[in-house]
Structure formats: structure tokens, C-alpha cells
Automatic annotation (TrEMBL):
Protein name: Protein MtfA
InterPro entries reported for this sequence: MetalloPept_cat_dom_sf, MtfA_fam, MtfA_N
GO annotation, cellular component aspect: cytosol
Single GO term (MF): aminopeptidase activity
SUPFAM superfamilies: Metalloproteases ('zincins'), catalytic domain
Pfam families found in the cross-reference section: Peptidase_M90 (PF06167)
Native species: Nitrosomonas stercoris
Amino acid sequence: MVGFLEKWRRRRILKRKLIATASWKSIIARLPFLQKLNTSELQRLREWATIFLHDKKIHGVQDLVMTETMQVLIAVQACLPILYLDPSYYDDWIEIIVYPGQFILQRTYRDEAGVVHSGQIVAAGEAWSAGPIILSWEDIAHAHYAAGYNVVIHECAHKLDMLNGSANGYPPLHRSMKPHIWAEIFSQAYATFCEQVEQGIAIGINPYAATHPAEFFAVFSEVFFMQPQLLTQHFPKVYAQLALYYRQDPAARCIL
């Protein structure tokens, strides 16, 4: 529950700094997946994004200048997953770092034989536990939303996953949800998807989801919001669990 002081603080922010109407309409027109939201949902999203922009610091690096429109574009997409949750779900981090394009990450991992390897990978996004989110502006500005791709939602899903520790595909669930059902459905779906990827069966979902349960949750969260009907077709039980978790039903919006 949000306390009295927090409600008061939010009212002050919204009164003073609500995202300007012209900027808001421009962003909504640019993001087709938001146009299915009803008037009440759009108003709440505008308020949550306003609070997000007040509470977070969004910095460009490598000479990237973050305009107001760019920041609003990020905030709106970041707040879609918490539309029916609360901005407090993002309280344990305050910064977003934005590169002009994809960036290089140094990775260290231990293989099945116990041998430690290190190397570099090119990434479009990264979420650090209790730290910043790092994003590629090129991947935000030129995202193929119709293909279910959304790097902002992906990294925010990791942040939600990390609320109870390391990202592992098992975020803290609501009291009304059954952890053993979530674990069973996601474990079976992950195994099925990994097998499909191994066999070269393409169903329109990014095969990167097969690299780790945390990535499975993040990628499937992208698809949940971007291409919900694809998820209801191939993984209806996963869709149902995500609908319970996010307290949204994007597939129902698509048929209105």
C-alpha cells in the first residue's frame, strides 16, 4: 500500500510536472501498441511516466543528448509493465544510461566443466541489480515493435525479476498467485521453447529467450505486451501467468 506522504508527493509532482499534452500525444502516436489502451489507462500511464521522469535520472553518453521527447519515450515504455502495479516497483534504482547505439559488455562465466571463460558481447540493453539500466537509443528509436521487440520492457522485466534477488525468471508474485504453478508452467515452457530453438522451429519469438530462464521471462514479457496473440497461440499458460502478474490482458485489447 502507498502511504499518505507518498500519495501527497505524487499529487504535487503531477500538479507541477505532468507531461505536456503535445509531447504526450506525439509519443502515443509513435507507439502503436499503446493505442489500444483505454482513456483511463492512458491517463494512468501518463501519470506513472511523469513520476518516473521525476524520480529517475536519464543520461546520454558518448555525446548523446537526451531531449525531453527521448526521455518521455523511454519513461512511457518503462511504465507500461507497471501500469496496474505501482511506480514503487522501481524504487530500488534511479538511473538509466543511454548509448547512441549498441555497446560492448565484458562477460565472465563458468562452463559445465567448471572452467571460467571471459569475453565480450554486443548488447542493446543491460540491467544491473540495484544499479542502472543501460540502453541503446538506436534500438529504442528504431525498434520493430510489430516483431515483439522492446528493449525498454525487456530490461524493466529484469528489474522486476530482481526484486527478490538475482534475475532467474521468478519475480516476487502477488499473494493471489501460486508460486508452484508459476514454477511448473514456466519450467515446462522454457524446456519446450529451448527444444524448439534447438530443432530450428521458428514461432516468431526471439530465440534469445532460450539462453536462460531470466531471459525467457524478459523476452516473453516483451511479447506479452507487443504481440500478445502470438503468446496466447503458442504458450497460453505462460500468457495467463503473465496476465496475473502484470494484472493486464493485452490480448483482449487487440480484439476490441
